[in-house]
Design goal:
Glutathione S-transferase Yfyf (Class Pi), Chain A, domain 2, DNA repair, DNA-binding, SOS response, DNA damage, globular, single chain, Rossmann fold, binds adenosine-5'-triphosphate, six-stranded mixed sheet, DNA replication and repair protein RecF
């Protein structure tokens, strides 16, 4: 459970302190008052990643030198400080030099927002990001393998673009490195998808009252029997033409089926929304199972646009004991019998305790 959340010079906040509720904390305010920034701070503190940006310097309030986020997570004190160029982490008041050690002690997170529709409507990169965020929380070796793969991929693409005549020997050296990391990435993504598949079906059945059938499968760019290095050897002509790496985990995708059809093209908007919700719920259940404790749910303005059946199903499908921080522009949708907790109003980056 996350308690005692404190931020200083983070995004629009000079300083804010919130005592979070063990079940539900609602942050209510008009647009651009700071709701999303606050739950982003919680995500950064627990996972060292923002769902909104990969440029950490953006987190520091304009004009300030360093941002700070601190909270208690299941009795441990987490501290994240970030300047334009450096990041400092601390666990229980002791500086933590290795992010892997920090992440091992920290909690897991599921982030939900209106962009979740991109899991169905957007390109494959959205689905890969979904897998990567979950896999990096479940498997301690995943992020290292993914970053190593991406580094080698950048190197290889640079070689493919650089000269009029491609230095294949150099490109192959990068391909060897990519091949090693790709094995871990594939294995972990496959394990994750095997765990997610049945959970997506279960969650979707509750959201759609059991009338539709969904499926989800991981799709590689090439035959599994071939290693990446060998597969890339067969792509010389194509790569010489497009000047970039044609195969590998950076091009893989998830195949999403709805009643045996491709959900990314044939599903209605409502069906796609239920599918995306089911994926996030499945992520929560799989993370709970893998990590032994429910994730923190950070839900950015997702409830207002759901009908009351799906709102109830969404809450009912979460693992028992899941802590939720929910942002919303109004409380009209809140039904007292299924959502009690603490409410804060937020205006111009200042939080006011309203009730609970
Ligand atoms: N580094 C920063 N320093 C200062 N202000 C920032 C920084 N980054 C973002 N902001 C500002 O913070 C404000 C709050 O943004 P935030 O996305 O948290 O609002 P919100 O209440 O979630 O609104 P919405 O409901 O529209 O998403 C915005 O006006 C944004 O421009």
């Amino acid at each position: 459970m996350l308690t005692d959340l404190f931020v200083r010079d983070f995004r629009c906040f000079a300083e804010a302190k919130l005592e979070l509720h063990p079940d539900v904390t609602l942050l209510v305010g008009r647009n651009a008052q700071g709701k999303t920034s606050l739950i982003e701070a919680a995500c950064v503190l627990l996972r060292l990643q923002s769902p909104r940006t990969s440029n950490r310097a953006e987190l520091v309030r304009f004009g300030a030198a360093t941002c700070l986020v601190e909270a208690q997570w299941h009795g441990r004190r987490l501290r994240y400080a970030q300047s334009a160029t450096t990041r400092r982490l601390a666990l229980d008041g002791v500086t933590c030099g290795r992010s892997a050690d920090y992440l091992a002690a920290s909690g897991v997170v599921v982030w939900m927002d209106h962009r979740d529709m991109n899991l169905l409507r957007g390109g494959a990169e959205h689905r890969r990001r979904f897998l990567d965020f979950a896999a990096s929380q479940m498997f301690p070796d995943y992020l290292h393998a993914l970053r190593g793969y991406e580094r080698a991929l950048r190197g290889r693409n640079h070689v493919l673009k650089r000269d009029a005549s491609i230095a294949w020997k150099q490109a192959d050296a990068f391909a060897h490195v990519m091949d090693g990391f790709a094995r871990t990435v594939w294995q972990r993504r496959a394990e994750l998808c095997a765990a997610l598949g049945p959970e997506v079906s279960l969650a979707h059945a509750r959201l759609s009252e059991g009338v539709e059938k969904v499926s989800m499968a991981y799709r590689r760019t090439h035959d599994e029997a071939l290693g990446l290095f060998e597969a890339l050897l067969t792509m010389r002509d194509e790569e010489a033409r497009v000047r970039s790496t044609a195969l590998g985990p950076h091009r893989d995708d998830l195949e999403m089926g709805l009643n045996e059809l491709d959900a990314t093209t044939f599903a209605s908007e409502g069906q796609q929304r239920s599918f995306a919700l089911a994926m996030k719920l499945a992520q929560a259940r799989v993370l709970e199972h893998a990590c032994g404790a429910p994730p923190l749910m950070l839900m950015d303005d997702v409830f207002g646009e759901l009908d009351s059946h799906r709102r109830r199903a969404l809450l009912a499908c979460l693992p028992p004991g899941t802590q939720k921080i929910i942002t919303t522009t109004n409380l009209d949708w809140v039904e007292a019998d299924h959502l009690a907790g603490r409410v804060f109003g937020v205006e111009k980056s200042v939080f006011t305790h309203v009730r609970g």
